[in-house]
Each structure stands twice: as C-alpha cells, then as structure tokens.
C-alpha cells in the first residue's frame, strides 16, 4: 500500500522534513528459512530510544509482508498497523524486539527485497527493499551490526552467502544445511544482502600493501565460469587503484561478487557481497564486445569503490544520494582513465563520459523530471537514480578537483573519510571536507556559492563573445552565464564555473602563451579561470592578431557553451587544438551546424548537407597518422539524433532522422576510398585483447564497414556487403562479429536476414548475446515505418520475456528510448505501443515501467502531430487506476510540464 493523501495521491517526501530517527537499532540477528513459496524470516533486534528526539511510538516500515509474531523482551506485545507501518507504543528506553514474518520470493517480480532468479535467491535492498524482507527502520541513517543465519535445502541451495565473514556452517535434518555470517561493519539496511543457490566461484587471493591477505570471489552459474576472468581482473585492479590513488584499502577478509540475470539496474554495492547484473560480469571474446569489457571494468570498479564511498561513509537520507553516487561515478571514471596507457586513451574516455552527460543528462535537466543533484522532494526514490544524481553529480565532484588540484583533492578525500568514517552524512559534509583540506583554494573561498551546483537544477548556459583590440594587442572574452527555469525553480543565481581556456594562433594553429591583463608574465598551456558572476570579462594581452579561443577545455564544467565560432575557427581547432576534448568538440560543432542548417532548409534526403570543407576535414582526421583510431572514430561519429533534437526549440523527429541519415549517406560516398583504406588498415587487431588501442582499431574498422555497406546501398555494389557477411562468419571475437552484423542490418541489406538467423543459431543459449540480437533489430534505422511491426513480432519470439528486465530493455527500450526515427511515427502508433507497454510492465515491475515511462519526457518540444499524440499517450497512462507510485510520479510530472 502506498502512502496517500486525502485525495488519494501519493505523498511527496521533502528534504526539509528530515528528522533523526526516534530509535536506534544496535544489532540485528536474522534467521532465514529459505523457501521460494514461503520464506520465514526471524528478526531479533537490540533497540534503544534516541534520547535526542521527543518520545514517540516506534514505526517500522514493511511492504508485502505476512506478519506472524511480535515480541518485546520475549513477551507478546501490542502493536497496530498504520498502512504498511507496524506501530508499537509504550516501549522502554532499550529493549529486544523480535519479529517473525514470511514472504513469497517466487512471486516477487518487482525484484526488490528477496526474489528468485533461475532457482537462486537474491536480494536487492537499495533503496527501500529491506522492508520487503522484514519490518525495520528502513532508512540509511540507522546503522546496525548484522548477524545472519541462512537455512535451506542443501541440494537445491548449496551456496549460502551474506555480508561479512562466514563464522559457522553445518548440516541440519531433512537434507537442509545452514551458514552463519557476521558483518564486522555497521551498515544501513539498504546494504544488506543474501544469495543462496547453485553457484560456482572464480577465486583469487591478493595481498594488500599492508601485507594483509584477501580472498576475492566471483560467483556465477556453473556454465559461466569461463566468462569471469575480466571481472576478476577488474576487481583486482580496483582494489589496487583505490589504495594507490586515495589510500583506501580493502577492509574485509573476503570480498564477493555474484551475478544474476534478473536485475533492475547495473549492480549493487552490498557490503562485501556485491550483486551484479550478468551484463556487467560475464565476458569472453566470443560473447562480449569491447564496450561490454569496458562497462564491466567501470561497474566492477564503481561497486568496489562504494565500499568506502557509500558503505564506510553512507548517506544520511536519500536526498543525499549523489553523495555516494556522484562521488563513486567520479571515482570509477578516474579509475578507468588511470588504467589507460596514454593521454589519448584518457581523452577518449573523457569524451565518452561527456557524450553520456550531454545526450542523457542535459535533456533530463531541461525536461519535466529536472531535479537538483540534491533533490528537494520525491514521491518514489527509485525514480531519482538518474543521470543527474550520477553523472552530473560526478561532474560536480570533478569541478571540485579542478578547483583544488589533483593533490588537494586527494587530501580532501582523506579528510572526508577521517572525519566521517562510520557515519551517515550529507553532501554539505563532503564539500566542507574538500574545502577544509584546501583552505587557500578557490573552492574554500567560494564554497557557499559553489554549493548551488547541489541545489539548483538546470544546465547553465555560457554565452561567450570575443573581441580583439589591435591597438592594445589584447583579446577580451566576455562571458555571461544564465540558467533556465526548472520545475519549482523559476529563477537561478550564478554558479561557480571553472573554465579551462587556451588560445590558438589563427594562422599557424599553434598554442599561444597566456597573459591576463595585469600579469607580468605569460604561462603556457591551459588556464583555469573561475567564473562566479553573472557576467565577466577576461582580457588576454600580448597578442599580435585575433586568436582562436579554445574554451571549456576538457569539458571543465557541465554547461552549454555558446560561442559564435566561424567555420574557419572550428576547422583550426579540429586540426590543431592540443586539448583533445575541444579538438573533438570542434568537429561536433561543425557537424551539428550542418545538421541544423539542413533541418532549417527542409532538406530532402538527396540534398547535400555537408560541405566540402567538412568532408575534407573529416578525411584529414581519418588519414592522420598522429591520431589514435579510437579518437578518429569519435570525431567521425556525427552528433546523435537526441543531441541534435536538444538544440531545437521545436523538434520534428522525422526531419532530424532524415537529415542525419542524409549526412551519414554523404559521408559514406564522399569518403568511400578512405573508408576502404581505413578498413584494410585497421581490421586486423591480432589476438584478442580489450585494451584501448586494439578496441579503438576495431571500432574504426567497424565504422568503416558500416559506411561501406551504406555506400553499397546507394551504389548497388555487392562486394562490400559480401565481404561484410564473410567477416561476420569468420570473426574471431564478438566485437568484429557484431560490427559486421550491424553494418548489414543498419544498411538494410538483404544479406542481413541470413546473418541474423545464423547469429541466433550460434548464440541461442547465451542470454546476453540474444539481448544484443533483439536490441540490434529494435534499434535499427527505420525505413518506411518497418521497425514497429518488427518490434511487435520480436515480442512474440519464444525467447522474449517481459519479466526479465534485460530482455524487456533489449526490445522495448531499444525501440522507445534509443530509436527516435522509428518511435516518433506520424500515425502515433509508436506512442500507443509505448503506453501499452508501460501499463503492462507497471503491473510486473514498477521500476522498469517508470524508466520506460521517461521515454516521452521531452514530448512538449515535439512538433505537431507528434506533440498532441504523445501528450494523449501519457494522459492515457496517467489515467490508469492503481498505477505504481513510480510510474505515477513520472507521468504526472510529464503532464505538469505543459
Ligand atoms: N547503488 C547502485 C549503484 O549505483 C544502484 C542500484 C542497484 C539500485 N540496484 C538498484 C538503485 C535498485 C535502486 C534500485 O551502484
Ligand atoms: Zn553506485
């Protein structure tokens, strides 16, 4: 049952209403009798009243539990139910509370609390899943010591795992056995976990700097052991990195990762027992792509780094979610960069991260679900595991590092963990620690204002303008910042923005020394200018001619930069900027400009959208022996349809799709010989290794094949499609195989059908590969409205299941959220399909449904007839009675937007 107000609407939880808990739980002793249909949970807690708050009844959270018994100090106690809460009055100052409940894991399709996946028990407690296991103070500021006893059939559930150390195990009557685990660290309930089933583990012992030994384990199903090497290596690297970079050691004797194929999100950082979606654990060269390998490294790192940033120091309340998520994303981004062998690979990683931010977080920040990094209210916290909390939160942490320097930031992290180890704290506490460790820094000087990044939603815009003064040999950049209104925040105050800048000589392209007005000497390389006012001027002196400014290098702040670059200036930056991010960005700006011009000019699919200068510049990048393949692939990737759409006030998705496809076709034919060269030059990467250099070569070869098949489509050439099919058959790894398949499918070639059939036949028993097979088809470029009927067909395939989140995402999300040209149909059939799936999924798994519901977040930007049709579809979902509060919150916010 939801908490509802008098009108029957779910109640919003507000940050300003935070109050300390009325009781503390010191110890929890849990005993589970595991049974898929009826699991018994005995919960014994040592509790005491919090003397700092007024005396009040104890209110324990519960959800879909069957309550059998409540004892206080061993005596039957009187209690009452208020909605889903169990309320007990008249308790002494300290007492033992014993609660006996049962639940039904096999029917748990929400995948929150205790559930069964492929005959194995798993838990997911973040954010509010523990209350589906037992009655509890299910809030992160209540931290307790856990002892857990698991009892189950030994034959069916030979492996019994929970947090911490295994202290006892043994046999029980009737073929049952037990295991007792003690977690040496206090933790909030959301970090509790158990796993029970038939699993096997890859094991590795490692020695930390201190000389202490640790056992690392990766648990999977028996057939998957050959796919755990990369996850184990990633875990080892994570342990070493956190100790080397931040001095944070592994604090447990034993650290476990377990994979499940039924999971709402990527993975979960339960103390000592991380539970992962199989997608982020299992990989071998035959089944996983380079992207999978790199995601596994990031997610394994991410969950491991939570062991400190999240577990040792946790969140006071869920409004502080970015305290752990933003910081931990920042840490996993830094980890992946530090594992790169060179500066180019680091820059590639940075560009990829920024691309995610700009294509997913910027739209969120501009839409009806916009919220600050530290939100002020929510109806369902699961809806706030967003790109804003994660990715924008990571950018806020990154700006702090930029403001205090890398060493200063490490000092700040050390102080943060010294001060707050074992506590549940706030975003303010984090920022304060970084500032206090760097008292002379700009961060310390501007801290209250800097923290507006936590409180104000929306993406700031920088309008920059440059004027050269020949007389004074100076160049003045004027920068005006603004931030659009967001729901509940009509006006904004200026942000603190670290702006990394450099200047290039317009004719030679060489970097110029930087000397600000009033300085006696020039410096070389990038400068960080800290903006804090609505408008500022930065004057550079000693310049013989108007320079080309390279602004926002490395994407030093999560803002939109408007600067009226000429094409010539952008071409100079693309050819010369020593900052690889801005070099890439210059190419993106040129591509975006062409797309926007094409859209404005109502281009048809035969109008050339790209000019010769752009094509020549792309050829130069492609052929440049100084640049890495991975970087070239990024430069030659056109801005996505979603990114282009964000730049428009009114979006006709079909027009965006058509123009971008025209640009791709033009790149395919105009650079045909270059693509041939690129393919021949890069397709052989030797024995498989997922390192950045060889994966970059595979990415560029794959891109070349894609363009060659696209060109063949226009010319009727059969050679390249034939070669591509052969490549598909002969490929020695999934990356090459999938790229070849993708080239045939996305060019709509007739050979695609047999390749798809063959692919399915080879991989029919590999669930993660079958997900790729579904997703490739549902995400393919639309031709005359052919994708929606295909998607409906795919949903009837025997391998399709709505209950498995990965599978549901592979078809439905690939279509609704990742294929705008196919989804936004003039006949509204895409929206009707969407509304039906949201409603259908909502009854099974509200978290997954609510994510799908967000596919229409940006409806109010759409041109007619899309806009009205989308609104109608959202209203249809909103009108459905008994909607989960997850989906309810998303659709009502969407409708409130306009
Ligand atoms: N804390 C997890 C992470 O970021 C996120 C997570 C995993 C989650 N499963 C969830 C959040 C279920 C909400 C619900 O690493
Ligand atoms: Zn996380």
Q: What features would you highlight for this structure?
A:
898 residues, alpha+beta, 32 strands, 20% strand, binds tryptophan, binds zinc ion
Explain the overall architecture.
With 898 residues, the protein is of the alpha+beta class. Helices cover 41% and strands 20% of the residues. It has 29 helices and 32 strands. Strands 2, 3, 5, 6, 9, 12, 14, 15 and 16 form a 9-stranded mixed β-sheet that branches. Strands 18-19-20-22-21 form a 5-stranded mixed β-sheet, with helices on one face. It has a 4-stranded antiparallel β-sheet with strand order 10-11-17-13, with no helix packed on it. α3 (321-339) runs antiparallel to α4 and α21 packs antiparallel against α22. The longest helix is centred in the middle third of the chain and has 24 residues, at 343-366. It is globular. The two termini are 30 Å apart. Residues 302, 306, 325, 328 line the site of zinc ion (ZN).
Secondary structure layout:
Elements: E1 13-14, E2 23-33, E3 39-49, E4 58-60, E5 66-72, E6 75-76, E7 80-82, E8 85-88, E9 94-103, E10 113-117, E11 120-124, E12 143-153, E13 159-162, E14 165-172, E15 176-182, E16 187-188, E17 194-197, E18 200-207, E19 213-220, H1 229-246, E20 254-260, E21 267-268, E22 273-277, H2 290-305, E23 314-315, H3 321-339, H4 343-366, E24 377-378, H5 387-404, H6 406-420, E25 424-425, H7 427-436, H8 442-445, H9 447-450, H10 452-455, E26 461-469, E27 474-482, E28 497-504, E29 527-531, E30 535-540, E31 548-551, E32 560-563, H11 567-576, H12 580-600, H13 612-623, H14 629-636, H15 641-646, H16 653-670, H17 672-682, H18 692-715, H19 719-730, H20 734-746, H21 752-763, H22 767-778, H23 787-795, H24 805-816, H25 820-823, H26 829-844, H27 846-853, H28 866-878, H29 885-896
Parallel strand pairs: 2-12, 19-20, 20-22, 23-25, 26-32
Antiparallel strand pairs: 1-24, 2-3, 3-9, 4-8, 5-6, 5-9, 7-8, 10-11, 11-17, 12-15, 12-16, 13-17, 14-15, 18-19, 21-22, 26-27, 27-30, 28-29, 28-31
The protein binds tryptophan and zinc ion.
């Amino acid at each position: 049952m939801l908490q509802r107000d008098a009108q029957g609407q779910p109640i919003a939880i507000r940050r300003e209403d935070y109050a300390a808990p009325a009781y503390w739980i010191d110890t929890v002793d849990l005993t589970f009798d595991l049974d898929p249909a009826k699991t018994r949970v005995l919960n014994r807690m040592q509790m005491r009243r919090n003397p700092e708050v007024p005396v009040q009844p104890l209110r324990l959270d519960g959800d879909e539990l069957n309550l059998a018994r409540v004892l206080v100090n061993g005596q039957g106690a009187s209690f009452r139910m208020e909605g889903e809460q169990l309320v007990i009055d008249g308790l002494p100052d300290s007492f033992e509370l014993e609660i006996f409940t049962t639940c039904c894991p096999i029917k748990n399709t929400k995948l929150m609390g205790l559930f069964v996946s492929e005959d194995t028990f798993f838990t997911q407690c973040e954010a509010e899943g523990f209350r589906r296991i037992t009655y509890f103070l299910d809030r992160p500021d209540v931290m307790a010591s856990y002892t857990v006893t698991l009892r189950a059939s030994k034959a069916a559930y030979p492996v019994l795992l929970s947090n911490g150390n295994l202290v006892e195990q043994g046999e029980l009557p009737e073929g049952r056995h037990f295991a007792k685990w003690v977690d040496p660290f206090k933790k909030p309930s959301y970090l509790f976990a158990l796993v029970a089933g038939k699993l096997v583990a890859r094991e590795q012992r490692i020695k930390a700097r201190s000389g202490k030994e640790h056992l690392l384990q990766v648990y999977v199903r028996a057939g998957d052991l050959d796919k755990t090497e990369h996850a184990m290596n990633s875990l080892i690297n994570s342990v070493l990195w956190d100790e080397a970079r931040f001095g944070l050691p592994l604090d447990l004797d034993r650290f476990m990762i377990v994979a499940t194929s039924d999971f709402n999100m990527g993975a979960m950082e339960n103390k000592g027992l991380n539970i992962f979606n199989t997608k982020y654990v299992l990989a071998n060269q035959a089944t996983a792509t380079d992207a999978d390998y790199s995601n596994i490294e990031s997610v394994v790192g991410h969950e491991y780094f939570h062991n400190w940033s999240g577990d040792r120091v946790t969140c006071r309340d869920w409004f502080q979610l970015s305290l752990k998520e933003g910081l931990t994303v920042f840490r996993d981004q830094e980890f992946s960069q530090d594992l790169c062998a060179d500066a180019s690979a680091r820059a590639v990683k940075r560009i990829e991260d920024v691309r995610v931010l700009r294509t997913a977080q910027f739209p969120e920040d501009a839409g009806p679900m916009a919220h600050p990094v530290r939100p002020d209210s929510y109806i369902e916290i699961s809806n706030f595991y967003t790109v804003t909390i994660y990715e924008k939160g990571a950018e806020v942490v990154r700006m702090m590092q930029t403001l205090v320097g890398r060493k200063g930031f490490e000092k700040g992290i050390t102080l943060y963990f010294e001060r707050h180890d074992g506590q549940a704290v706030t975003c303010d506490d984090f920022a304060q620690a970084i500032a206090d460790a760097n008292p002379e820094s700009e961060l310390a000087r501007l801290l209250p204002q800097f923290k507006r990044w936590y409180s104000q939603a929306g993406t700031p815009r920088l309008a920059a303008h440059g004027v050269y003064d020949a007389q004074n040999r100076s160049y003045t950049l004027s920068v005006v910042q603004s931030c659009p209104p967001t729901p509940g925040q009509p006006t904004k105050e200026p942000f603190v923005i670290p702006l990394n800048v450099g200047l290039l000589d317009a004719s030679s392209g060489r970097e110029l020394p930087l000397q600000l007005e009033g300085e006696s000497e020039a410096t070389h390389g990038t400068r960080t200018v800290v903006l804090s006012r609505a408008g500022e001027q930065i004057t550079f002196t000693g310049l013989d001619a108007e320079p080309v400014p390279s602004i926002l290098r490395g994407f030093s702040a999560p803002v939109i930069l408007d600067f009226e670059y000429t094409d010539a200036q952008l071409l100079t930056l693309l050819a010369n900027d020593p900052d690889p991010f801005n070099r890439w960005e210059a190419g993106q700006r040129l591509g975006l400009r062409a797309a926007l011009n094409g859209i404005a000019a109502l281009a048809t699919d035969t109008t050339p959208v790209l000019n010769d200068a752009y094509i020549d510049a792309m050829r130069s990048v492609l052929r440049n022996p100084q640049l890495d393949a991975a970087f070239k692939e990024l430069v030659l990737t056109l801005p996505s349809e979603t990114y282009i759409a964000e730049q428009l006030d009114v979006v006709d998705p079909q027009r965006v799709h058509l123009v971008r496809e025209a640009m791709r076709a033009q790149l395919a034919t105009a650079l045909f010989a270059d693509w041939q060269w690129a393919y021949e030059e890069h397709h052989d990467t030797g024995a498989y290794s997922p390192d950045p250099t060889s994966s970059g070569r595979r990415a560029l070869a794959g891109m070349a094949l894609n363009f060659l098949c696209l060109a063949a489509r226009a010319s009727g050439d059969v050679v390249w499609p034939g070669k591509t099919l052969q490549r598909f058959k002969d490929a020695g790894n999934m990356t090459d195989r999938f790229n070849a398949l993708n080239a045939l499918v996305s060019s709509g070639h007739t050979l695609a059908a047999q390749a798809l059939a063959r692919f399915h036949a080879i991989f029919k028993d590999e669930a993660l590969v079958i997900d790729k097979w579904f997703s490739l088809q549902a995400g393919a470029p639309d031709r005359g409205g052919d994708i929606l009927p295909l998607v409906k067909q795919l949903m009837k395939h025997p391998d399709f299941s709505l209950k498995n989140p990965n599978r549901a995402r592979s078809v439905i999300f690939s279509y609704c959220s990742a294929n705008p040209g196919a989804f936004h149909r003039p006949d509204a059939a895409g929206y009707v399909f969407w509304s039906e799936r949201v409603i259908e999924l909502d009854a099974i798994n509200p978290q997954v449904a609510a994510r799908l519901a967000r596919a229409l977040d940006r409806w109010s930007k759409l041109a007619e007839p899309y806009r009205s049709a989308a609104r109608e579809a959202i209203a249809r979902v909103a009108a459905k009675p008994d909607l989960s509060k997850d989906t309810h919150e998303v659709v009502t916010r969407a409708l409130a937007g306009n």
